[in-house]
Every structure is written in structure tokens, then in C-alpha cells.
Amino acid sequence: MAIFSNGNSELEGSKTDANTTIITAGAKIKGEINLSCNLYVDGEFEGEINSQKEVNIGKNGKVKGSIQAQRVVVQGYAEGSIDATRVEIKAAGHVKGEISSSELVIESKGVFEGNSVIKNKTTAQIEPKKEQKLNVSNS
Predict the structure, then answer these.
(1) pTM of the predicted model, to two decimals?
(2) How confident is the chain (139 residues) per 10-residue block, as mean pLDDT?
(3) Which candidate, 10, 21, 66, 80, has a CA 20 to 30 Å from the CA of 49?
(4) Strand 77-89 and strand 94-106: pairing?
């Protein structure tokens, strides 16, 4: 019941490199995490997550707050704001809040309640961002 750095494990639904920080089931953490590696959350986290790589919320994971990462995969529950290049909501995943991403993938039975802002790198430099709001809920 803690945070671990696991150098040799493969996490379900994502590729991991040699440096993945894990918040295990049963752990409850509040605060801010700044990482240059992947993060796997199977416990509970409340606060701000900043990762230069991937954040994966496992089936037992619950995150409340803001997430900024290269890629976010949600198999559990996330509430708040997500800012990433790619966001994936898996079949058991549930996201409530705002997503800002270039790519948003919602699998069948994945749930998204909130707003989505589509980021486009090529037009962001030329013209202001265009906001697109989606209210999606797959049952």
C-alpha cells in the first residue's frame, strides 16, 4: 500500500518503459506529483499529476483533480481535467470533467461525462483554438 517504482512489469492496456511509478490498491494520496516517467494508479489520488509520459488509471484506480501527460488511459475513474495528446477511456473507464486532447478514444461501455476540447497543433499556431463540446455516455 504505497508508491513503488517498478522496473520490470508490464501493465495491462499499455506499454511501459523501465521506469513506471505505481500507486497500489489501498493507497490514498493527496498532493502533487511531477514525473518524467509513466504512472500507474490503482489506488486513490487527489490533486495534480504532471507526467512527461503516460498516466494509466487502473480498474481500481480513482483520480480526482488535474492530469497533464503525453497519454492518459482510464480503466477506472477520473474526475477533473485531463490535458494530453491522446486520451483513451477503456470499457470499464469513467471520466467526469473536461478533456483537452488531440485524440480522444472511447471504447464501447466507456463513460465520458463532460466537455471535450480538441487540440490541433497545426492550426493552434495560425488561428485561435476552436472549442468543441461533447456530452457522451456509452452504456
Answers:
(1) 0.76
(2) 44 57 95 96 97 96 97 98 97 97 96 93 47 50
(3) 10
(4) parallel
